[in-house]
Amino acid sequence: NCTCYHHNRCKFTVEEMQKKEKMSNDKKSDADFEAHARPSIKLYMIRHAESKNNEVYRDARHTFKGGTSNFDRQGWIDYINTKRSADPAISSTGVKQADALAEYMIEHLRNQASCPVRFVVSPMRRTIETILPTLRGLTVGGGNGDDGRTDVDITMNALYFESEGCHLRGKKQPGMNQFEIRDILSSAAEAEASTEIASSNSGLFNPSFVGFDEDPNLGWYNYGVGPEHRYQSEERASAFYTWLCEYLDEQ
User: Fold this and answer.
1) 120 by DSSP, 3-state: which?
2) Are 151 and 26 in contact (CB under 8 A)?
3) What is the CA radius of gyration of the chain?
4) Cβ distance 49 to 129 under 8 Å?
5) What's the average model confidence in pLDDT over 42-70?
6) What pLDDT is attached to residue 223?
7) Of 21, 111, 197, 234, which is most buried with the most CB atoms under 10 A?
8) Are 226 and 172 in contact (CB under 8 A)?
């Protein structure tokens, strides 16, 4: 549930390459073409790492002998109801997956991307925790900025989350609000950066918020009444897709 995109350096679309060839045939200079060419955009769609809820279900299946003739159904239900979270963090396996993602993404983005690298992120905790290692790696040094960091631009979009929304046993949970999300990002930046960098860049991870309530104290799913119905998920997904297309067109 994270979208990362950037302008590729020195790349053109097929249509623009054809245009260049035609202009060359017409003996027009490359400079004329360069003035009209638009860099392409590379878009990464990233699913979140394993969550602690996945871990809970896996442990429950093992503990209560799921899939066998000795399956303890009530024990399984009680365990899930006790352990499951409406907005879980990532599991220990998820932490390893997030680190592996960062190892891949950081190298590619530093070598290929223009600045800033833009991230559109779901407000769900597991999604934010999945992309944090990548954000930390890009912004603490070794990048292409004047201070050694790669600039990032982060948009938290409240339309961008898994079907059904944020709920626990059918009851709506509000999800994190804007202050709580900022705290996660800023604490991650300070933990990784030197004291000098952290103190001089307190806004290092200062996201913009789309689709949230006007009151920053209210969570991203505050409007919900319970799990989403199918038609509500489809309407929301359509609204997010429209927003994303318009957002990309503006870049």
Assistant:
1) strand
2) no
3) 22
4) yes
5) 94
6) 92
7) 197
8) yes
Beta bridge partners of 2: 46, 121
3-state secondary structure of 40: coil
Query: Within its chain, how far is the Cα of 93 from the centroid?
Result: 18
Token pair listed for 237 = 């997904």
Quote the distance between the C-alpha of residue 231 and its chain's center: 24
Of the pLDDT bands very low, low, confident and very high (cuts 50, 70, 90), residue 234 is: very high
Query: What's the whole-model pTM score?
Result: 0.79
Q: What residues contact residue 60 under an 8 Å CB cut-off, 6+ apart?
A: 66, 76, 79, 80, 83
Q: Please give the C-alpha separations between residue 55 and each of 48, 87, 146, 247, in angstroms, as whole numbers.
A: 14, 14, 42, 35
| Distance from C-alpha of 42 to C-alpha of 39, rounded to nearest angstrom | 10
C-alpha distances in Å from residue 196, one per residue of 47, 151, 185: 34, 18, 18
pLDDT given for residue 12 in this prediction: 43
pLDDT in tens, 154-173: 999 999 999 999 999 899 99
Q: Is the pLDDT of residue 9 over 50?
A: no
* pLDDT computed for residue 53 by the predictor: 96
| 3 state DSSP class of 77 | helix
Residue type at 230 in one-letter notation: R
- Nearest CA-CA partner of 207 in 138, 130, 149, 123: 123
Structure token pair of residue 123:
């407000």
Beta strands in the chain (DSSP E): 2-7, 41-46, 117-121, 152-157, 167-168, 171-172, 208-210
